[in-house]
Amino acid sequence: MSTVPAIDYNTLARDIKQWARELGFAEAGISGVTLAPDETHLQDWLDAGHHGEMEYMARHGTKRSRPDELEPGTQRVISVRMDYIPPGTRNAWEVIGDGNAGYVSRYALGRDYHKLMRNRLQKLAARIQAEVGDFGYRAYVDSAPVLEKALARNAGLGWIGKHTVLINRHAGSYFFLGELYTDLPLPVDVPATAHCGTCTRCINVCPTGAILGPNKLDARRCISYLTIELKGPIPEELRAPMGNRIFGCDDCQLVCPWNKFAQEAVEPDFAPRHSLDGAKLLELFAWSEAEFLKRTEGMAIRRTGYEGWLRNIAVALGNAPHSQTTIDALNARADDASSVVREHVAWALQRQAEKETGA
Asked: What are the domain boundaries of the chain?
């Protein structure tokens, strides 16, 4: 007869949340695997073509919305969140208002969070294993088709705001999410309810009109998509509204009233590198490819690639205040090896010329 003691899953769930906090996560919650309404919402979004060139969003069928299909045997999902705004970061609106500076989304200023959080999730799994013995699990941090915001909502970590970003009533929205799929029948938490009310600030502030309505985002117009996911030319009509945003965009979060409760990051690796929380555009535009690769090692900015980096900065320089120094820098790359870079440099030079003549 087995002498292995029965597992007290209620106690285990409480312990898991405590262990998660000890590992640097701000909070953890537990949900089931039923996501039927979210599956319908996802399919409608894909059918409308709002995912643009992000073909991976449609590539895995229902695995994204059915955790037990992605990882057979999954009964519960442990969702975690980690705050990412480091202390002392330059004020975002101040940078956006400085036409000679480049704005980088606050989540991308320091170390890439993917490996960091996945390693912490593996440590959490090891701690659980030490308590209950072998069990089935899989850790995910943007590494597989996962509806992380829906799972986090169901785990009580926040609601999906009208801008489609998760909002926590005690911590705003500046945090990363990660998941531990498990076969343990843990008790689930109460899903979070929405508290956006009649507020439409995020919809109204979007520079490119990407938020079509509550929970309706056309990624093809979103600056985060344009500066990171899109690999070719940026649609010309969207270049001027981009302003000086060269990697991502935070406007919809910056105006959200709930972010008055945002918590500073406790992870030192998220601190800004190379003064990217407000670096000058001309300095960044001067980086060689070798410098770009060296300085962005271990950072999310790598995702845009050197060509995308120059493309984005060229647009920002076109939107910058008129300056002969800016024109000279653009002319220096007018014959760039990349046709994409050449196109955006030419556009930026035209913009600068229009500013000079007052057109």
From this structure: 9-88+108-182, 201-256+273-357
Quote the tokens at residue 268.
């030192």
The mean predicted confidence, pLDDT, of the chain is 96
Name the nearest CA neighbour of 230 among 162, 290, 297, 309: 309
Looking at 113-247, which runs of residues are DSSP E strands?
137-140, 159-160, 166-167, 175-182, 211-213, 216-217, 245-247
Angle made by CA atoms 167, 25, 299, in degrees to the nearest 5: 85
Enumerate residues 6+ apart whose C-beta is below 8 A from 106. Answer: 84, 85, 89, 92, 174, 250, 277
**Residue whose tokens read 């262990």:** 19
Tell me if 212 is assigned to a ligand binding site: no
Tell whether 142 is in a known binding site: yes
According to the annotation, is 196 in a ligand binding site? Answer: yes
Active site residues: 142
pTM of the prediction?
Answer: 0.95
Helix (H) or strand (E) holding 104: strand 103-104
CA angle, corner 173, sides to 98 and 11, nearest 5? 155
Mind listing the pLDDT tens digit for each residue in 98-133? 999 999 999 999 999 999 999 999 999 999 999 999
Q: According to the annotation, is 250 in a ligand binding site?
A: yes
